[in-house]
Design a protein that fits this description.
With 93 residues, the protein is an alpha+beta fold. It contains 4 helices and 4 strands. The strands form 2 sheets. It has a two-stranded antiparallel ribbon.
């Protein structure tokens, strides 16, 4: 989730991007499907570097593709994005 590179079985390095769908708090490894679906934030690590711009862009892209969200739904999705952003402060110890 942090955007760090991982070492694959063939010793190559790559970065795994996690996509997030706030509608149902669903995480998914980013792929062609999530990249094309406006319901997904394409890369959750963007929330940690620039939350305000990332969330604003997510809603602008979604509404351009699907139309305006109802205020209640938008608030719920904003809360979901806030919870994902707060994961950066989670300590497993």
């Amino acid at each position: 989730m942090t955007g760090e590179k991982v070492v694959r079985e063939d010793y190559s390095e790559s970065r795994v991007k996690l996509a997030f769908r706030p509608r149902d708090a669903h995480f998914s490894v980013s792929d062609a499907t999530t990249e094309k679906n406006p319901e997904f934030l394409k890369d959750v690590t963007q929330l940690w570097s620039d939350f305000r711009r990332t969330s604003s862009q997510f809603f602008a892209d979604y509404e351009a593709a699907r139309g305006p969200l109802e205020p209640v739904q938008r608030n719920a999705w904003e809360d979901a994005l806030d919870r994902v952003r707060d994961l950066q402060n989670f300590s497993s110890t």
